[in-house]
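Q: Two folds, back to back.
A: First:
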Amino acid sequence: MLKDNDIRVTLIDELNRINAQHDYRIIEELAVCDGEARVDVAVANGRLCGYEIKSDADTLERLALQQKCYDKTFDMVSIVVGEKFKDRIEEHVPNYWGIYIVSEFHGKCKIKRKRTAKINKNIFVRTRQPGDTFRPAGRHVGKTLKKYLNEAKVPVAERTLMPLLACGSQVLWLWGAGFADGLSPDDGTKQILLIRQSRQPAAPEQEQDHNIGGTDHA
């Protein structure tokens, strides 16, 4: 029977292998949705990817809640299972989640990708909302977006107009600040979303506003 640590070690070895050609960071036991859920392994490599482990000793009782939280947080999500769930896990996860199977062969664990994860469609370009959080690049510490904007001394009048890219309440990219920690594009990035901001031209002022009282000047 494969336990959590058996699967975890095998998964992390595989993640190190497939990310070896570009910058990345592996984070274990990452709390999301204000601690409502905790993903087993997260990878920041230009995208934020979550990996949930269900070992042969686990149940699927919390999976529905975990799915809700992970879909609010990660660009891509995969579930990693052992023998116990390999034949029925597809019934319990969305079709855009990836699936990995870990099996034991001659005393060694091997991992096989059964289904490739697809981009989470819950990511939106919008303006800020209450509860948004942001992890500034290079700081490795998340904070509320309100606190970040206060520290950055962004004028209050500008805050409601700043576009951002978010997955649930997690801000992935913020206008003027760039990408969240670990999410900047690199040599391994295959697709780029171009966001262009424009302003509506101000309405021309009425002629009488220039010549108050109708008096002409030579």
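A: Second:
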Amino acid sequence: MYCENCARIVEKDRCPFCGNRKLRNPEAKDPCFLTEQDFVSSGILEDVLRQNGIPFLKKNVMGDGLSVYVGPMLDRSRFYVLYERLPEAESVVNDLFAPAEEDGAPDPDSADLPFPGEDEGAEES
């Protein structure tokens, strides 16, 4: 179902984001919320969506006035795409921002590595 207030696809009879009960079936040209990203990620996503020919609408969360005051690096952007392109756009977002899959390799941050200056295998006398 589609919530016109939030421009989100929801699976219940009530929107969990705004509480709207007046939901309807989505239409192909309905703008649908895709994701919200920080300043840097927004630029990356914008570029990749353009490369894939996916039309989108980008709205800054803070607005231009506040963004100018605090700086664009603190702003976030919400992306909307047409319902008919939503699955394709979601795939792009998942490919770009999904955490890396575990490949069974040990995490270098958690490995037992010697501290600088320690000799491996050296015994104290």
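Q: And?
A: The first strand starts at residue 2 and ends at 3.
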